[in-house]
Amino acid sequence: MARTLDEMVSKGKRKLEAKKEDMKEMYRDAREHMIEAFKKLPFGDKIKKHYEKMIREVAADNYYVDPEKWGRNWKRKISM
Question: How many angstroms separate the CA atoms of 27 and 64, rounded?
Fold first, then answer.
């Protein structure tokens, strides 16, 4: 069991590292829902088309999980 803050961060980073590929796949699976939900917002057609293109062509292929960044941010937040 983790007893220090640094041990807790290490454990969290290991868990995040282990599931980051699953998270990427879940993000890809959620694309259609994200696009449909955005279409319901009061933005113009041009903005909606750009959003859809970004989600389909850019975001899904560039989804990135950074355990190191997560660890730094978690430790900062939990220490406040």
Answer: 10
Residue-by-residue DSSP string for the chain? ---SHHHHHHHHHHHHHHHHHHHHHHHHHTHHHHHHHHHTSS--HHHHHHHHHIIIIIIHHH----HHHHHHHHHHHHT-
The predicted-structure confidence for 20-79, as pLDDT tens digits, reads as follows: 999 989 999 999 999 999 999 999 999 999 999 999 988 878 888 999 999 999 999 998
pTM higher than 0.85 for the full model? no
Kindly report the CA angle at 37 between 51 and 59, in degrees rounded to 5?
Answer: 35
On the CB side of 34, CA atoms within 13 Å amount to 15
